[in-house]
């Protein structure tokens, strides 16, 4: 049976999630207006320090984890300031929530998995890619799975997963329906000759998923780094790395996006962000320890757990035929979309 996974989150809820813009001086109407227009005292200081006549401020809605690291690094390294850019972050629970914020205007940019680009395009949602974020290493097939995939499938004690098709008929924990981890598992099962429609998906947050796996209430779970390190310390072994069934070596699996209307209205700012994030990516390749520490500090995970996962892998571009079209074909085959969407305009800045 073909499945239809709808984008979660309602635009009707956007008003309650609008980002608050605080002023540097609540005693002055002039300062309040200045802050509302992204020209706060701190921005003025940054302008003076960087030699910029004016700072461009963008709001980023970000899910906690490795995908947000580029924003953290851009600010800490001074690269954003060099480009006369300031990015203010707001944490959200998931990519669908971040997409809702961007479409509603309470955020300018976010990072999302490629599969979200495809599913939203099929629904007529106008997102535009403004830069590459994370990619599968080009040499992925020669690396240990934990150094390639942030997601691992782990079997409960007493269960055996000798190949992906064994997951058919099992109760498998996922962070959400239609997520990168679910689609990756479905793709792996299908490629192995199994029927992903027979998987009993259980939607759980990561801490609850780990608890239920250890209690034997799940047959298997899709676990993300750094929780993978926690499970492995308890003797669990990774049975499958599902992302490689969805994304090919060398391809982007996570990109920076904005709403089409914002790309048109704020094209100069988005172009500045594009140029800055490419420089951030280059810096990240040369300073992997710095980005690992930033992620550890932000997520409150141990540095050892972060380092046990994938290293820095980023591209300098986003290519439709390499990164997006193949994923769309997989989603169509598996029934996550009903028809191939028009993707010709989805890359807003190249």
Automatic annotation (TrEMBL):
Residues 69-290 form the SsuA/THI5-like domain. PROSITE patterns: PROKAR_LIPOPROTEIN. It is found in: Periplasm. Residues 1-20 form the signal peptide. InterPro entries: SsuA/THI5. PANTHER family: ALIPHATIC SULFONATES-BINDING PROTEIN-RELATED, TAURINE-BINDING PERIPLASMIC PROTEIN. Belongs to the bacterial solute-binding protein SsuA/TauA family. This is SsuA/THI5-like domain-containing protein. The lineage of its organism: Bacteria, Bacillati, Actinomycetota, Actinomycetes, Kitasatosporales.
């Amino acid at each position: 049976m073909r499945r239809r996974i709808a984008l979660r989150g309602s635009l009707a809820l956007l008003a309650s999630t609008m980002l608050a813009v605080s002023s540097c001086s609540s005693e002055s109407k002039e300062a309040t207006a200045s802050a509302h227009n992204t020209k706060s005292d701190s921005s003025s200081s940054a302008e003076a320090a960087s030699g910029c006549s004016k700072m461009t401020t963008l709001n980023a809605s970000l899910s906690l984890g490795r995908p947000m690291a580029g924003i953290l690094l851009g600010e800490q390294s001074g690269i954003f300031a060099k480009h006369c850019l300031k990015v203010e972050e707001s944490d959200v629970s998931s990519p669908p929530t971040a997409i809702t914020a961007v479409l509603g205007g309470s955020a300018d940019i976010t990072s999302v998995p490629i599969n979200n680009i495809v599913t939203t395009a099929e629904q007529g949602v106008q997102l535009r890619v403004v830069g590459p974020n994370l990619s599968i290493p080009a040499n992925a097939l020669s690396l240990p799975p934990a150094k390639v995939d942030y997601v691992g499938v782990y079997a409960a004690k007493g269960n055996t997963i000798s190949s992906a098709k064994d997951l058919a008929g099992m109760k498998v924990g996922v962070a959400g329906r239609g997520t990168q981890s679910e689609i990756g598992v479905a793709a792996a099962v299908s490629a192995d000759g199994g029927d992903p429609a027979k998987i009993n998906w259980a939607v759980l947050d990561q801490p609850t998923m780990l608890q239920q796996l250890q209690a034997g209430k799940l047959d298997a779970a899709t676990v993300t780094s750094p929780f993978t390190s926690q499970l492995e310390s308890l003797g669990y072994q990774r049975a499958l790395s599902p992302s490689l069934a969805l994304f090919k070596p060398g391809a982007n699996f996570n990109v920076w996006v904005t709403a089409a209307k914002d790309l048109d209205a704020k094209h100069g700012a988005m172009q500045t962000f594009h140029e800055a994030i490419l420089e951030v990516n280059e810096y990240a390749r040369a300073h992997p320890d710095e980005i690992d520490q930033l992620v550890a500090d932000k997520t409150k995970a141990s540095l050892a757990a972060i380092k046990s996962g994938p290293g820095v892998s980023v591209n300098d571009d986003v290519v439709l035929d390499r990164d997006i079209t193949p994923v769309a074909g997989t989603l169509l085959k598996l029934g996550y979309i009903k028809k191939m969407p028009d993707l010709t305009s989805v890359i807003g800045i190249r």
